[in-house]
Amino acid sequence: MTEYTHLEKIRLQKIEELRAEGINPYPTRAERTHTSAQAITSLQMAEDSTSEGSPAQEIRATLAGRIRATRPMGKLVFTHIEDGDGKIQLFMRVNELGQEKVDFFNKYYDIGDFIQAMGVMMRTRTGEATLLVHDFKMLAKAVSPLPAAKDETMEDGTVIRHAALEDPEIRARQRYADLAVNAHIRENFRKRAAIIKALRAFLDDNGFLEVETPILQPLYGGAAARPFITHHNELEQDMYLRISFELYLKRLLVGNLERVYEIGRDFRNEGVSFKHNPEFTQLEFYCAYADYLKVMELTENMIGYVCDTVFGTRKFTFEKEPGKAYDLDFSTPWRRLEMRQGILETSGIDINNHPTAESLFKAIVTKHPHKTPDPHVTRGKLIDFLLGEFLEPTLIQPTFLYNYPRDISPLAKPLPGDPLTVERFEGYAAGFELCNAFTELNDPLDQEQRFLDMQEDYTDDEEEKNPLDEDYLRAMRYGMPPNGGFGMGVDRLTMLLTNNRSIREVLLFPALRKEE
Questions:
Q1: First to last CA, the chain
Q2: Per-residue model confidence (pLDDT) at position 153
Q3: In this structure, which of 164, 213, 264, 279 has its CB flanked by the most CB atoms within 10 Å?
C-alpha cells in the first residue's frame, strides 16, 4: 500500500474535489495545434510579415505541456509550461477568463500538472512570446511533486531554478523524473538517437545491408564473455542471450550477402562499471573482400561522418575525471600504432623477445615488480595485461592499435610471416577502447584448430570462454569470402561525443542493484 506524503495527500484531495465537480483530472482526449517552438515561430513570422503601423496577424494556438512555474498576481497569473520543444509562458487574466476561472486555476493546478491552454499569441512588455489564455483544461493531475527542480518566477519575469535533481543514483533509478526536470539529459538522448541514425545512414550509403540475427541462441559465441542463460520450455533446452552478432553475420557472407551490419543489444553477464553495462548497444559490420586496413578507413570515415552530421565538428572535449579534460580530434587520418611498439614505449618490454608465457611473465615481474599478473594465463593475456596497465591510458587522441596476439584473437587471420600475431586492431580514444576489428579468418581448418586449442587453454573455473561452434565451422566449409569485420559499442561512442564519463548517463535505464 502506498504511503503518501502530506503534499501528495493535498493533491489527492484536489483530485477528489475535481471529480465531485464533474471534472475528469485525466481526460481521454487532448488537443494541440502548436508545440511551444511552433507557436513562438508563428508569432515571429506574423510580426515579420506585418508592415509598419498595421496590426499583426492574429495567431491562435492550443498548447499542451507540464506546468513548471506559476506566479499568481490577483487578477493575473503568469505560468510557464514545458513540452518536448521547450518552455513557453501562459498569461491568464480576469478580462478573458473571469475571476472564478482564475481562482479555479490557482486552487487546483500545481507545478507538475499537464495543462491544455487555448488562446492568442502575444508579447509581454518584456518581449517574451506568450499565450494569452482564453480557456484551459486539466490533462493530467500530478499526484507526486517532481523530486527536484522547482522554478521560481521573479517579479521581473526571470525564472530561477532551485534544488536541481543531481544525485546520480536517484537520476538513474527514476529516469522519468530526471528527463522531466533536466532538459540537458533529454538532449543527451536525442543526440544518442541522432548518432545511431547517422551510423545507419553511413553504412546504408556505403552498400551495407541492415539485418537482424537471433538474440536467443542455442550456442553463444563471437567473443570471450560470460553469457546470460535462460530455458526454452517447448524445446526443452537451455538458450543464451547473445554476447555478439559476429558468427551469425559471417554466416551471411557465406550466403553471398557481401556487406552486412546490425545495430542491437548484446548481453554479457559481467561486472558493472563506468564503461560496462550487462546489456549494451553494439554495431557490427562485415565487408567481403576487405581487410583490417580497409576497415580502418571505413571506421574513421564513419565516425567522422557522425561527428559532422550530428555535431557539425570533429573536435570534442571529454572530461574523463573531474578536473581532467581531454581535447579530442576525430579528424582523419587517425594515428596508427603497432601494439608491440606501443607496449615497448610504455612498459620497456619487447613482447617479440618473449615467445612464451613463462618468459613474458618473468620479464614483467622483473621490470615492474609492483605489477603482478596472473602467472597461469596465456601469453596473449599477459600481453593484454601490459596493454591495460601501461599503454591504454596513454591512448588519448583517436588511435588504431594494431597487430594483436593470436591466442586472444581466435577469429582473426594471422599476419603473413608471423604465426603468433593476427591482423586485428582496436580503436582507442580518451584512454579506453572504442571499437574492435579483424581481417577475419576464413580458413575452416585453421578455425577449427584454434577453437580446439582454446578449449585446452581454458581452466575449469574460467567464466569467459569462446565455445566451439560446429555449425559455424560447417558454414565456413561451404566457402567464406575474405572479409573484414568490425564491432563498436554505441554507448561508448555516445559517451565520448556527448562528454559523459559514465555509461549510465547515455542509457535510459541502466542496470542497477535491486532497491532495498
A1: 16
A2: 60
A3: 213
- pLDDT, tens only, 87-103: 999 999 999 999 999 99
Q: Are residues 29 and 114 in the same domain?
A: yes
Q: What is the CATH number of the domain that holds 192?
A: 3.30.930.10
Measure the CA dihedral 373/378/383/385, to 10°.
-30
| Residues 62 and 155 placed together within one structural domain of the fold | yes
383: nearest Cα among 365, 396, 364, 400: 364
**Model confidence over 277-291: pLDDT tens digits?**
999 999 999 999 999
Answer yes or no: is 315 within a domain.
Answer: yes
CB count, 10 Å around CB of 456?
Answer: 6
Q: 133 with 191, same domain?
A: no
Q: Which residue has the higher pLDDT, 191 or 321?
A: 191
Q: What are phi and psi of 260, to 5 degrees?
A: -130, 150
Place of cell 569462446: 466
Number of separate domains in the chain: 2
342 in a structural domain? no
Write down the pTM of the prediction: 0.90
Question: Which residues have CB under 8 Å from 7's CB, separation 6+?
Answer: 145
C-alpha cell at 91: 498569461
Last residue of a domain, one of 130, 164, 198: 164
- Domain hosting 308: range is 186-334+397-506
